[in-house]
């Protein structure tokens, strides 16, 4: 659009020069000259105004030009203050989320990501992707991972595990797991028969080995184990199966009600959180999530294709139809965002401000101009055409008078 706007301005200048030379040939040429003259003035004025936002026109250090590069730090602070005051205070977040049906909007997008697609949305998505790529990955990742680690530390894991296990037992969902473990035990014994036989042979006394009873003993033990596991697998009321179920039920109850068990689980949780391997896993999880988010922002239709897209579309339809599900999702979204704004609002806006301040002036200019520059070129085109129309009207009034 910059080329179109510039070519239009040049065309008006050429028409003005031509009509000045041949103005006396016909009265209509005067109207064309007036239009071209006023259009050229309007185009030049708007070109100066648009250019002055991003750089010095013609490289001349004219006062109050290159506004964005010269005021980069102030823009960063103003942007941070704007975000803090209008988006990231708990009161504002709660009020805005209370008036928004986030679940229905998410459902509409998931069911058809192309709905409402426009140049403005594409530009916003591109700008969001640029911001995500330019923010300090370590600092932003540290903020996200710190928040996740804090929530995990606050989470009392034992009662949650106990309730999940108790619900699984009540619904009978533990049985496939038990049966799978029994089959796995049989496969493990079968794969290690030579080792079991050699172990029994080594531990048997001399008389058993001399008489060959050690081999019969080993085979009897293996046969007994196979029979026990097979009966446990096929007999619903087998004693071993009942023992396993009783053990699981006791474990579920202890996880919820036994203080010693809960303390033990908490110690194990803190040991896992303090393990460097968990930190590396968290780093990988953050980086994969960040890259996936960038992929979705850069190419939402491509990222939501295939089986994932079909599943998300089904979820979107459910979000649009089910009012009860909408209430649950909206309540969760509201509480989550209010909590995030309360705990991390100041850190988020400071991160945005410091990141923008670290950008050099050219980077800031290029990113802002890339996001809105196309619309600014329409200002130049409109200024040229509106100026021409004003000049045409004034010339007509002058002729009539």
Please provide a written account of the structure:
This protein is mostly helical and 401 residues long. 86% of the residues lie in helices and 0% in strands. It has 20 helices and no strands. It has helices at 2-21, 27-54, 67-70, 72-86, 90-98, 102-111, 119-134, 137-154, 157-171, 175-191, 193-203, 206-211, 213-234, 239-257, 259-274, 276-298, 300-303, 306-321, 323-358, 361-400. Helix 4 runs antiparallel to helix 19. The chain is elongated and about 130 Å long. The protein starts with a helix and ends with a helix.
**Strand residue content:** under 5%
Shape: elongated
Q: Total strand count, please?
A: 0
Q: Specify the biggest β-sheet.
A: none
Mean pLDDT: 76
- Give the number of helices: 20
Amino-to-carboxy terminus distance: 39 Å
Structural class: mainly alpha
Low-confidence parts, pLDDT < 50 over ≥5 residues?
A: 116-121
What assembly state would you assign to the polypeptide chains in this entry? single chain
The amount of helix comes to over 70%
Helix-strand string: HHHHHHHHHHHHHHHHHHHH
Tell me the radius of gyration.
37 Å
